Amino acid sequence: MVISTIADGVVRSADRLGDLVTGRAFEPVLRIGVTGLARAGKTVFITSLIANLIDRGRMSGLAAAQEGRIVAAYLQPQPDDTVPRFDYESHIAALTGANPHWPESTRTISELRLSLKVRPTGLLAGLQGPRTLHLDIVDYPGEWLLDLGLLEKSFADWSAATLKKLQTRPEATAFLAQLRAEDPDAKLEEPRAQALAAAFTDYLHEARRAGWSDLAPGRFLLPGELAGSPVLTFAPLPPTQAPRGSLSREMERRFEAYKAQVVQPFFRDHFARIDRQVVLVDVLGTLHRGPEAVADMRATLAETLSAFRPGRTAFLTRLLGGRRVEKILFAATKADHLHHSQHARLTHLIEALVKQASERARFAGAETGALAIAALRATTEEERDHGGEVLKMVRGRLLKDDKQAAFYPGDLPEDPSHVLAGEGLGDFQAMAFAPAPMTLRPGDGPPHIRLDRAAQFLIGDRL
Ligand SMILES: Nc1nc2c(ncn2[C@@H]2O[C@H](COP(=O)(O)OP(=O)(O)O)[C@@H](O)[C@H]2O)c(=O)[nH]1
Ligand SMILES: [Mg+2]
Question: Residues lining ligand 1, CB < 6 A?
Fold first, then answer.
């Protein structure tokens, strides 16, 4: 532990030295983290944000763009040589090409630098030329953030809490049956350990499909290059006083290795350096899955917020020193699934969720904001007379069969507390649309809903 802290200090000061030598120290860098569970909309959000910062015709809600003070926006090589580059060019080509489709889902961290040349405002405006602000945008899975909770838990604690939860979940039946057939005290046999870990991983995948959000350890779902390695070959086990070399002792050791070699480095190398954070939430998709999924999403949001609470854990306090995330934006994505007459309700819902999560997580620190957005608008609106009642619908190309269809997903409740209290939403429907073919005027980015407001919240004060 001590060693990793010292090593971290060394890396950071070397970083600074590099900056000084290249003169970059004088050009401010804002590091923006974008996270959310799988399919929340991170890739689409980052792609559309970059496209709309490069072509700012639809960014009137971003004051500096509206005032014409952004002189240029351009992509640059990112400063972190070991982090995969966010594949902006492929993603934007997928979204805006002749046959538009959603980008491939990504399963790991990636990063991109967008630099903005901005004319200053106020007193300095006449005295200074444009200055440069670098935005380092980092995309990382929300599942990884939830692993923070593991750092505080021993293998026994984690196992007990997890097994308790699994008793109530139908998705865990097969894993629990397999677990009963194991003797944690028996000598470790690697194939059996692998099979048990695989069954636990299957459970996590099932749980995600069923809409649960509490899916730690996060790398089991998104293993990347760690797939098949011992740090991912463990599972929760009932308590024992097992001897050395037993299944139980070895899994405990691997659990500790996961914390030390997977979770801690992520927080040290990435999380600790973030200045501003976007948390994307597929609120509409979760509503569709029902009250239990909503309750689980509330808990997950609180867990996410607590990761940003100064002093949440001794580990983070030591890591961050006095540093902290300055702003956190929670955005309900895919708002284009609703007619705009319902957007205010979606906004109230995400606001209420964040407020409640702040209270639960006893969060104080960063400025938080909540918005309902669509990073890429895939629908148009349509009003239809339905037996004397006007139905406010959205129309788009369906993902499943490529046909055009108009949809009325149901009404969101006026009072978000009903949803938060776990009342069902009746027949609220989820939809999946394909991105619509678009012809963009020169200077316009892809169509979106309130992406400009999101950008204003995140970076407006620094432009
Ligand atoms: N209609 C609509 N669908 C979206 C939007 N953003 C994301 N999606 C859908 O959500 C899926 C997952 O988005 P993606 O950005 O890949 O999520 P990630 O896993 O968080 O990176 C996409 O394939 C789309 O089907 C949006 O702005 N509008
Ligand atoms: Mg992605």
Answer: 36, 38-44, 102-103, 105, 333-334, 336-337, 374-376, 378, 432-433
